[in-house]
């Protein structure tokens, strides 16, 4: 009980009043107002005067029952506040209030901005979704149109134009790719890097994404990215656009594009062309090889001209396919996000463009004799400082690469023959159905694999590569000898086929004679 009653003891504080000690005692039940009135009366200060209390160090002491007690040696002092002091306090209080209000205002503004940004993002997402739906609808319409045209063809048996991805009257010829390319980045092993430089490279073991990475590597390795100040992301987008614009034909497809480009890369290394030609020439050779068969429809120039297709009419029967490949190549390059030559001087780009067109047009086999004869006239006194000589060499190089499959090992080359014959037979079947002339080497009823290859190797491939060998003797063992071996291989196959045909013929005759004797 004693301890309990002591907790209700009055609180005593000591004041300094005009230099004299004044003792003030109050109960813990007093309110702050009661204590203030008591202090005023003790210090002879009029009632209702605003006061404050400070300790000997000048620190404020709270005026309420919780104030700390002191001793006569540590006196509190009661100080009345003047109007000016009250005004200062009020100003300070108002200033604090203003700052707090400003902070709240900022917070509200941030919330408003967040709300606005969220709303705008939602609108953009909606627009992207709508645009995506439009693309899907467009693709659906294209597919429906294709099905309708195929149905009309099958019903009517009439002739239709050779399919072509691009309507040249339409402003949107190529779908832009503004997204960052997403094909996986493959780290090429040292073995692959070395194999890429050789004609023996097996192009059948690679997926499209891997071929894209190999092409990307070639451009970096040859120094073309640095020479033309290419944005590496733009190079990726361009390669993706190239791949997307090769059709899924049996032969003229993206793998053929890669095959030709890899052979060009191999010949650049094999013939030490980096020491003889400029980096600009290297870029022209590689880019022409990559683009040389873009959007090939799977039906050759002879069909285009005989069927009077849109391409033949557009290009006046003059290399319609090769002209189309060039046009598609530069439609892709006209897109800022795919323009690997964006940082090239405009005048220099004009020359690069003309050179690429010249090389792609040179792949028309109708011009084979003309181009090879021109090179034969120059090869014995070839001058690498002569622009005309160098242009002719580049035309022959892209021709060699375009038809170089038989240079590769038999297990790599032979599947390409099957692919080519499949494409030939598709064309000859169509020509028959449309009443058009059919080339014997394309007719499934007349041609065999050996007969298709022997004449081409003997009269086209070997003479051209042997002419190039005069300028670059190092290609004989790696490129020319495999052609001779391939010729011998198909001649042996032809002898076997002829023997079997003769044996079958005699067997049929004997059976016929046996039937007559009965």
From TrEMBL:
Its EC number is 3.1.4.-. The keyword Hydrolase applies. GO terms for biological process: signal transduction. Zn(2+) 2 binds at residue 293. Pathway: Purine metabolism; 3',5'-cyclic GMP degradation; GMP from 3',5'-cyclic GMP: step 1/1. It catalyses: 3',5'-cyclic GMP + H2O = GMP + H(+). Binds 2 divalent metal cations per subunit. Site 1 may preferentially bind zinc ions, while site 2 has a preference for magnesium and/or manganese ions. AMP binds at residues 252-256, 293, 402, 453. Pfam families: PDEase_I. GO terms for molecular function: 3',5'-cyclic-GMP phosphodiesterase activity; metal ion binding. Residues 176-497 form the PDEase domain. The active site is at residue 252. Keywords: cGMP, Hydrolase, Metal-binding. Its cofactor is a divalent metal cation. Zn(2+) 1 binds at residues 256, 292-293, 402. Specifically hydrolyzes the second messenger cGMP, which is a key regulator of many important physiological processes. Highly specific: compared to other members of the cyclic nucleotide phosphodiesterase family, has the highest affinity and selectivity for cGMP. Specifically regulates natriuretic-peptide-dependent cGMP signaling in heart, acting as a regulator of cardiac hypertrophy in myocytes and muscle. Does not regulate nitric oxide-dependent cGMP in heart. Belongs to the cyclic nucleotide phosphodiesterase family. PDE9 subfamily. This is Phosphodiesterase.
């Amino acid at each position: 009980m004693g301890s309990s009653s002591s907790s209700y003891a009055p609180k005593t504080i000591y004041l300094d009043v005009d230099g004299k000690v004044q003792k003030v005692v109050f109960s813990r039940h007093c309110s702050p107002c009661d204590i203030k009135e008591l202090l005023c009366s003790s210090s002879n200060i009029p009632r209702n005067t605003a006061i404050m209390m400070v300790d000997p160090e000048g620190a404020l002491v709270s005026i309420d029952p919780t104030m700390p007690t002191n001793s006569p040696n540590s006196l509190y002092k009661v100080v009345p506040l003047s109007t000016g002091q009250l005004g200062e306090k009020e100003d300070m209080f108002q200033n604090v209030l203003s700052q707090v209000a400003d902070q709240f205002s900022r917070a509200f503004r941030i919330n408003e901005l967040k709300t606005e940004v969220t709303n705008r993002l939602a609108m953009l997402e909606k627009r992207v979704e709508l645009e995506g739906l439009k693309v899907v609808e467009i693709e659906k319409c294209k597919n429906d149109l294709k099905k309708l045209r195929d149905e009309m063809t099958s019903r009517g048996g009439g002739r239709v134009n050779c399919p072509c991805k691009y309507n040249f009257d339409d402003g949107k010829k190529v779908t832009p790719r503004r997204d960052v390319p997403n094909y996986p980045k493959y780290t090429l092993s040292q073995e692959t890097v070395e194999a890429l430089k050789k004609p023996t490279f097996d192009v059948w073991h690679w997926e499209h994404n891997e071929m894209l990475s190999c092409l990307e590597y070639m451009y970096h390795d040859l120094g073309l990215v640095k020479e033309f100040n290419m944005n590496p992301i733009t190079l990726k987008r361009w390669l993706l656009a190239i791949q997307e614009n090769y059709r899924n034909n049996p032969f003229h497809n993206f793998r053929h594009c890669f095959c030709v480009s890899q052979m060009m890369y191999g010949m650049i290394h094999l013939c030490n062309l980096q020491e003889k030609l400029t980096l600009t020439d290297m870029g022209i050779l590689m880019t022409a090889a990559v683009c040389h068969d873009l959007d090939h429809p799977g039906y050759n120039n002879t069909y285009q001209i005989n069927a009077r297709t849109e391409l033949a009419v557009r290009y006046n029967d003059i290399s319609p396919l090769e002209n189309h490949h060039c046009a598609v190549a530069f439609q892709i390059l006209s897109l800022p996000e795919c323009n690997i030559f964006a940082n090239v001087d405009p005048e220099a780009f004009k020359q690069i463009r003309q050179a690429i067109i010249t090389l792609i047009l040179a792949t028309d086999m109708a011009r084979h004799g003309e181009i090879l004869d021109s090179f034969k006239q120059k090869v014995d006194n070839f001058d690498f400082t002569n622009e005309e000589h160098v242009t002719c060499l580049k035309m022959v190089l892209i021709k060699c690469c375009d038809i170089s499959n038989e240079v590769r090992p038999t297990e790599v080359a032979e599947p390409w023959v099957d692919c080519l014959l499949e494409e030939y037979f598709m064309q000859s079947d169509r020509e028959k159905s449309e009443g058009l002339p059919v080339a014997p080497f394309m007719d499934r009823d007349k041609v065999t694999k050996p007969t298709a290859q022997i004449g081409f190797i003997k009269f086209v491939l070997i003479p051209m590569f042997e002419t190039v060998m005069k300028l670059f003797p190092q290609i004989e063992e790696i490129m020319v000898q495999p052609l001779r071996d391939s010729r011998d291989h198909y001649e042996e196959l032809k002898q076997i086929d002829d023997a079997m045909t003769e044996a079958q013929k005699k067997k049929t005759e004997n059976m016929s004679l046996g039937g007559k004797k009965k």
